[in-house]
């Protein structure tokens, strides 16, 4: 076989039960990976040990890190980066891109509807329960028209490739999706380490995200503003995504502010500069809804701005994403995505949904309780991979605990079949070799007034623990540079 | 007949240590509606810093104050004048088709439209076995049922100040069977909603001339929606229908949405606050 | 620019400059004491006390025996001591963090490397035999930072604010060093015919300010109290002199404050006034009463810093 001479893949163990993205089903390396495969094969594994160390210290020195909090102390960690890129061919990407845009548009129309006429519910397409028992449904947004009619300006869609070779959407993140800065950093890091490999591929650039984001934000400026003043608001430098906030502000060339830098006077928002107050028109906010304004939501929020919501309601400032988008990234809404897409766009979904059981429905609850060992149980309103239980990994007593939790609050849980995420060769530090690891893909979609854009790349997240299916960085995941090839 | 009301709202805050930064939002301005016509607002604060007039997240008028200076004491005084048309709560066409009304409130469209006021909130949450405390009688009109509920609530709880706070939950109130106007109103709303009738919490002022319960603070009562009639006010604390003496400020799902004063104050140590309300009226020529 | 961020940049500049001066003070005093011409200046206890005096934590009890490793650890790497080098670098980085979107990647990366260098420096090696390596690295990394500030930032208000921080701090540290060495020279006088006016401590002082060679070039004589103080305080061409720093501060405040009308309450007016006072001062006027001169210049510098805070950083 071709890879017998390939040093770095000699010890690569392939589990035939998993879909390995670089191989065809007949065991041959896929056409698009062939060149990469042989280029990497020219190096010895020791080269990779060194390159990997270099890449790590480069991330560390650049301060591309996040803080991990434990009871004892705060640690600064890098988001582990893998040197072997993932390649997505133009045909596959076309499906992903069109699918992501379709979902973003449909979700935007859904949000407009549930905060205005609620036709989709009145016509019985989705149950009333989706709003009436959602803690993320914000009555304060009823009847509010966000500038440009856009709610989910930025969406992060989590997509996986199942063992059947098809792409499935796992969830839509439309509150404050994060990770886009890593897409760009990963590309930079790979270029620094192995620039030669780029000569053999026509890879789409990922550095145009910031300019597209700025253009989007400016497209939804408040009425009567000529040249809008855009800012990014962050909870502060101790937030785990602070690097990303500062990166976006810097590359867009706008100010990075904290709540205490802003104030509201006569329903306009201003920032405190060295030359006095300066009006702010558009806020790309990276703080959650309930922390935006302590006078309207959580009174103990010290990261928000008193009076901000009134300014927003009066149309004097744009918030992106709009408040109240959380209702639509509720996992219960996810399960109705095929209906939602059909209803608003009159289209068939381009990307498939994973079948979902609602524990709120008695017959489905019964099924879930009986088949818990073959399902993934997810709370509907948690982010970051928290609270997820994977049925076939649970002990007997854990299963009982999970069952009890579900029975106590069925509305809080949904269940999905355990999908087999595709795997990708990943360099593993401990064994100093390439091994198969599960991956997913988060795409970043921007929706503006007459504008849509999907970053050609996205973040491939890797579950670094062997056999692990949860790829979130807070749960010990890493990431890979993701190449979308240009269409020749 | 027209009545002219004068309402004086006073609040006083004293802090043990310097306050560096503070924001307040008052939700105390009487609403303008069919029966309430506004005459004047006079709002002052003892630091003589500017007051801003705005709206809150639900669109009700607010006053915001942000003294950009250090202080230990601040007092607020609002003086509202308004003209109120005499309200006769029985001046409506009674429901003709009782069955039709009950059917109406079961309809999906109706339930979707009134979703906010049918929803359970933490302050209107009834434990499962208390949901049947008051069940509507479908042979009587919804209005009559609501009147009965008003009366039942009035009798079920006895009025007592200082035993509950603004965030006391219903199960505790039902256990001890006492409370103030917020608690009466939350219970009324919860039971109306349990019977599928939209109900909202109303905050406002009560003219005390007739010896009603109200404790010289802001008052609370409920509004319930009856098909073909509209929103009607019920004051379960006094077993009354809301009338000329009830001056409405705002409504919401529960107290949370209507709290008269919200503040963010950066200081440490003890503080004391007090509020008083005085309502007086005179007949207009 | 945001007022809060401006404040952070100002302090970033100050902390970078501060760590450098502390590191050099440790280095020069320790190593020049090893072969100092008189016993007093060679005395390790004397040197350790001088170091603590300089960082603002003087030991008044003459009988107290100081442990060398403890003192070196405290000033260099003790995270529990507010004035330690490690804390200065940490604060510099924290301030840079919050202004990360305004400074260049190159400058940020250099600060971050600096921070990780100090953070990872092995304590044992440092207190036993790493003092030279550690302090030289700290001073060199600060020099790199100054280069990155000058070479990679836009010379706009961000730059002006950082350099105001750097220069106010430099003037402050030079005065603190003068104060410490003046104090040492007083203590050292009288031992073995040692005189205050041509004390060995003046040479050390000049080396602490990286000014020894240029001073020799300028005066072509062994340093005395008068020439040393003149060179470090009043000579505007000496890059570490107080006068030079004041000139820099004045230049940058004029870039920041675009108001050209007469405003005697402005920071710009105050800086100009202080600068004018020293511009035509004679060293002979200072030499008579160095202590009150030191106290008064420190007061003026903190007055400038405070005024800046109120005028530009108030948020």
Topology:
The complex is a heterotrimer of chains A (488), B (285) and C (315).
Chain A: H1 31-41, H2 45-61, E1 65-69, E2 74-78, E3 81-88, H3 90-114, H4 119-122, H5 129-132, E4 154-161, E5 167-173, H6 180-194, H7 209-219, E6 230-233, H8 242-252, E7 255-257, E8 262-265, E9 268-273, E10 276-280, E11 282-285, H9 308-313, E12 318-320, H10 331-334, H11 337-345, E13 352-353, E14 357-358, H12 362-370, E15 375-379, E16 389-390, H13 396-408, E17 413-417, E18 423-428, E19 433-448, E20 451-454, E21 459-463, E22 477-484
Helix pairs in contact in A: 2-6, 3-11
Chain B: E1 2-19, E2 21-26, E3 36-45, E4 51-55, E5 61-65, E6 71-85, H1 98-106, H2 108-113, H3 142-156, E7 158-159, H4 170-176, E8 178-179, H5 181-194, E9 199-206, E10 219-226, E11 230-235, E12 240-241, E13 246-252, H6 255-258, E14 261-266, E15 271-283
Parallel strand pairs in B: 7-8
Antiparallel strand pairs in B: 1-6, 1-15, 2-5, 2-14, 3-6, 4-5, 9-10, 9-13, 10-11, 11-12
Chain C: H1 3-33, H2 39-42, H3 44-54, H4 68-77, H5 85-98, H6 105-120, H7 123-152, H8 157-188, H9 201-208, H10 212-219, H11 225-234, H12 242-256, H13 267-279, H14 283-287, H15 290-312
Helix pairs in contact in C: 1-3, 1-5, 1-7, 1-8, 1-9, 3-4, 3-8, 4-7, 5-6, 6-7, 8-9, 8-12, 8-15, 12-13, 13-15
Report on the architecture of this protein.
The complex is a heterotrimer of chains A (488), B (285) and C (315). Chain A has 488 residues and is of the alpha+beta class. Among the domains of chain A are: 94 residues, Rossmann fold (3-Layer(aba) Sandwich); 62 residues, Dna Ligase, domain 1, CATH 3.30.1490. In chain A, the strands form 5 sheets. In chain A, strands 3, 4, 5, 13, 18, 19, 20, 21 and 22 form a 9-stranded mixed sheet that branches. In chain A, helix 2 crosses helix 6. Chain A starts with 30 loop residues before the first helix and ends with a strand. The model of chain B has no long low-confidence stretch (mean pLDDT 91). The radius of gyration of chain B is 20 Å and the shape is globular. In chain B, strand 4 and strand 5 form a beta hairpin. The longest helix of chain B has 15 residues. Chain B is built from 6 helices and 15 strands. The N and C termini of chain B lie close together (8 Å). In chain B, the strands form 4 sheets. Chain B has a 5-stranded antiparallel sheet with strand order 12-11-10-9-13. A 4-stranded antiparallel sheet of chain B has the order 3-6-1-15, with no helix packed on it. A 4-stranded antiparallel sheet of chain B has the order 4-5-2-14, with no helix packed on it. In chain B, helix 3 packs across helix 5. Chain B folds into 2 domains: 102 residues, Immunoglobulin-like (Sandwich); 161 residues, C8orf32 fold (Roll), CATH 3.10.620.30. The relative contact order of chain B is 0.23. By secondary structure, chain C is mainly α. Helices cover 73% and strands 0% of the residues of chain C. The mean pLDDT of chain C is 91.
